[in-house]
Amino acid sequence: MVTDTLFVLDLFTIISLLVLANLSQRIGEALRIYPVYTVFYFSVAIVVVASFIDLIFGSGDTTTNQLFGITLLLRGIGVIISIPVAFKYWHWLFKEKL
């Protein structure tokens, strides 16, 4: 059950990061921002690796609870490192709203 939910969340995270990477690339070219959008692809790779580890070794076993914690940490790191990059490209949206 947990593995199925995590797989769906991983899929949504991967798709969201890829969409952000594509849109950030386009806006970065228009604004001539240094291409740091590649960090999104690195984040996708981290989430894919964590999902692959859970798929191969399973996360429901009591013997893999520590491994499950490590893969959750990897997912968190993947998302956290993409937040400053997203803010770099999309900070103007906050100024428009406020």
Q: Can you give a write-up of this model?
A:
This protein is an all-alpha fold and 98 residues long. It has one domain. The protein is built from four helices and no strands. The chain has helices spanning 2-31, 38-57, 65-80, 83-97. Helix 1 runs antiparallel to helix 2 and helix 2 (38-57) runs antiparallel to helix 3. The longest helix has 30 residues, at 2-31. The relative contact order is 0.17.
Q: Summarize the helix and strand pattern as letters.
A: HHHH
Number of strands: 0
Could you list the spans in which at least 5 consecutive residues all have pLDDT below 50? none
Helical coverage, percent range = over 70%
Q: Termini, distance in Å?
A: 41 Å
How many domains, as an integer? Answer: 1
Helix tally equals 4
How would a textbook summarize the main sheet? Answer: none
Radius of gyration: 16 Å
List the helices and strands and how they pair.
Blueprint: H1 2-31, H2 38-57, H3 65-80, H4 83-97
Helix pairs in contact: 1-2, 2-3
Summary?
This protein is mainly α and 98 residues long.
Spell out the key features of this protein.
98 residues, elongated, mainly alpha
